[in-house]
Amino acid sequence: MERLYIGRVALTTAVIFVLAGCGGTQPLIGSPGKIPKSITASAQHAQSSRYEVLFSFNGANGKNPSAGLLDWNGKLYGTTTRGAYESQALGNVFSITTTGKEKVLYDFHLRPDGNDPAAALIEMNGKLYGTTVQGGTYDCGTVFSLTRTGKENVLHSFGFAPFSDGVNPTAALVDVNGTLYGTTLSGRGPFLGASTVFTVTPQGIETVLHRFTGYPSDGASPRAGLVYVKGLLYGTTEGGGSGKYFHNGVGTVFSITPGGAEKVVYSFNPGYSPPVKSGFDPYAGLTNVNGTLYGTTVYGGAYQCGTVFSVTRTGIEKVLHSFGYDEDGCTPYAGLVYVKGMLYGTTRDEGAYGNGTIFSVSLSGSTKVLHSFGYGSDGSAPFTGLIDVNGTLYGTTLLGGTYGDGTVFALTP
Q1: CATH code for the domain defined by 5-412
Q2: Sheet holding 227-229, edge to edge
Q3: pLDDT tens across 111-152, in order?
Q4: Where are the domains of the chain?
Q5: Whole-number Å distance between alpha carbons of 25 and 44
Q6: Can you give the pTM of this predicted structure?
């Protein structure tokens, strides 16, 4: 397998899909994490938050959830990137109660079905909608719908070269007035490598709104979904932009109108000389808090472990927190959720046991570790963000749990 370079570091321990092209179910790269550090908890780790593992995946009922959850009328819905259909690891859609009762709603199959769903689901008009990274007619990913009873329908298959379609959607969709908006990581046909912003109707009519051109005037490779704020959609790109830390840019925040007029709002630019205090390579989407956008970067910051940042819609960026000090987390691949004046998120690495954290951060930048993953049968390597359901935060871990295949967890701050 080709080694994947993301964030300009060879990721031999990151749990990420290899998406250099279309076709085939790509294995996960990675390990459950470091050997746990001392059991002795520091003052930072000894919090009063109530945390519990609700469910441990065992392969037969799903494996390696890399997406967040959806709350739909008191029940949680999610996806796993691996499943059990005819011994093929193609992923599934599941539901789970807040008490931990899980049910597989749909197992993804071979083409023309999608496979490897890596994004969260949304609900629109009584149906679930989502994306798969691969599979579909051209094996380059799909947009699908699913009823509560598990009837799946592929709305669009990405990758038809003559139409210059995008490929490999890794992000969730957003509903704007009944039309779904999303992003693809790459492109195909005459625009090979050109990632896109697209729309698709519930009837399956897909339109490419924008093709990213990359460094130096545009972003490249959006891994996250979009957020709708006052008539504009905002998102992030992992690469591109005018930042000069690496030759091809280190990410952007962009805006786009529902009609397709795109603009770079901010280009991440950590600079050449250490210490690199600015973040770079944002994997996650943005959270709107009173008109200001908040997000995370996987790398950069004072300790090279990523950041929490804010950016205004006019492009003024501020680092609120740099990860990596003492038992702080590292590499936040997930976005943030805003609850009663605080932002909450996860880091995939480090913490007291080396396998990631749940953290809170105030709008002024005061940060606290609420839970460190990875000891005993706990989850490990949370790759996605949290949702708030009546004051309790719910999320997934990619690895760990009783069987090592990931978990669903709950935390009450």
Answers
A1: 2.120.10.60
A2: 227-229, 232-237, 252-256, 262-267
A3: 789 999 999 999 999 999 999 999 999 999 999 999 999 999
A4: 5-412
A5: 41
A6: 0.89
